[in-house]
Automatic annotation (TrEMBL):
InterPro entries: ABC_transporter-like_ATP-bd, ABCF, P-loop_NTPase. This is ABC transporter domain-containing protein. It holds the Pfam family ABC_tran. Residues 1-28 form the ABC transporter domain. It comes from the Eukaryota. GO terms for molecular function: ATP binding; ATP hydrolysis activity.
Length: 163
């Protein structure tokens, strides 16, 4: 049946664990049970999902943000990613991330640094940069990395000062 074909195709797509799913009218041919399973699968899915659908009940169950085209005009409903990011408490990176082919990707967790620690690190890095330039022991790439780190730390201090 058409519903079984839809289930098999969706299962195969999600098994590959892609970063994004684009679903065009995914509710076609699905019975109530299949629709419920699809809603649960999408809610559990860790990647991005773009859904094109006329099924309002389905969209209400899975979408936090809806872009509605009506009469040639776009109306956006729900919470955008910007508002979601404002709610986040920390920048905790996932422990394990896999690409679409199932290969594990190394992810480094972002460490939070206090303004006091940042000032100390800035002094240390500036000293290393100065010594490295004077003695010519640093490569250009090492200097660029140190300068990037300095800029990150200075940004942390300016954000802390702004609070």
């Amino acid at each position: 049946s058409g519903g079984m074909k839809v289930k098999v195709v969706l299962a195969a797509c999600m098994w590959q664990n892609p970063h994004i799913l684009i679903l065009d009218e995914p509710t076609n041919y699905l019975d109530r049970e299949g629709l419920g399973a699809l809603v649960l699968a999408i809610k559990d899915y860790k990647g991005g999902v773009l859904i094109i659908s006329h099924n309002k009940e389905f969209c209400d169950n899975v979408a936090t943000e809806k872009w509605i085209m009506k009469g040639g005009y776009l109306r956006i409903e729900g919470e955008s990613m910007e508002k979601e990011e404002d709610k986040e408490v920390g920048n905790k990176a996932p422990e394990e991330v896999y690409d679409g082919a199932g290969n594990k990707i190394d992810v480094k967790a972002q460490q939070s640094v206090s303004a006091k620690d940042a000032k100390k690190l800035i002094k240390d890095i500036e000293k290393k940069l100065k010594d490295g330039k004077k003695k010519k022991t640093l490569t250009d790439e090492e200097m660029w990395e140190m300068e990037d780190k300095l800029n990150e730390l200075k940004e942390i201090i300016s954000k802390e000062a702004g609070k």
